[in-house]
Amino acid sequence: MVENQDPTPPEVTVASPAAPVPPTGRLRRGIGYALLVISTVTWTGGIVALPLLPLPLAQRAAVGGALILIGEITFWAAIPFLGREIVMLFRRKLNPWRWLRKQELEDKKE
Fold first, then answer.
1. In which domain, by residue range, is 64 found?
2. Is residue 74 part of a domain?
3. Whose CA is closest to 37, among 89, 90, 92?
4. Based on CB atoms within 10 Å of each CB, which residue in 10, 16, 20, 35 is the most buried?
5. In this structure, are residues 42 and 71 in contact, taking their beta carbons and an 8 Å threshold?
6. Geometric angle at alpha carbon 72, from 45 and 44, rounded to 5°
7. pLDDT in tens, 13-58
8. C-beta neighbour count of 31 within 10 angstroms
9. Is residue 87 a part of any domain in this protein?
10. Residue 76 belongs to some domain of the structure
11. pLDDT (tens digit, 9 = 90+) per residue, 76-94?
12. Is 44 a member of any domain?
């Protein structure tokens, strides 16, 4: 015995033009740069300002670890928004070991 079959095909859902679109262009870069700034501020705050706070040593260690962790998370979260090339450029330019090597190379040339 054959059951009643519906001759109409099932409905196909099509995304409406008002569907949310992933951030692109300026918004995407803006989010990436904001995350990069947050990363830099948390790292700098952890290194420079933390020793100056009137906190016990255990609290300073906990806050410093948290700031460094937040800095790393926001840095790596910026990569999908900015692209790997831009992030590596920032890392190369802001690496103090690279500055010292350049200075050593210049001293050897003289």
1. 26-104
2. yes
3. 90
4. 35
5. yes
6. 15
7. 555 555 555 566 788 888 988 998 999 899 887 778 888 889 898 9
8. 16
9. yes
10. yes
11. 898 888 887 777 787 777 7
12. yes
Output the six-digit token pair for 14.
């099509």
Specify the number of domains making up the chain. Answer: 1
Task: Give CA torsion, residues 67, 71, 73, 77, to 10 deg.
Answer: 150
Phi/psi region, residue 20 (left: phi>0; alpha: psi -120 to 50; beta: rest), is: beta
Phi-psi map region of 83: left, alpha, beta (phi>0 left; psi -120 to 50 alpha): left
56-to-43, 64, 101 alpha-carbon distances in Å: 20, 12, 37
* Residue 62: HSE in the Cβ half-sphere, 13 Å Cα cutoff: 5
Tokens 């569907």 label which residue?
19
CB-based contact 35:43 (threshold 8 Å) = no
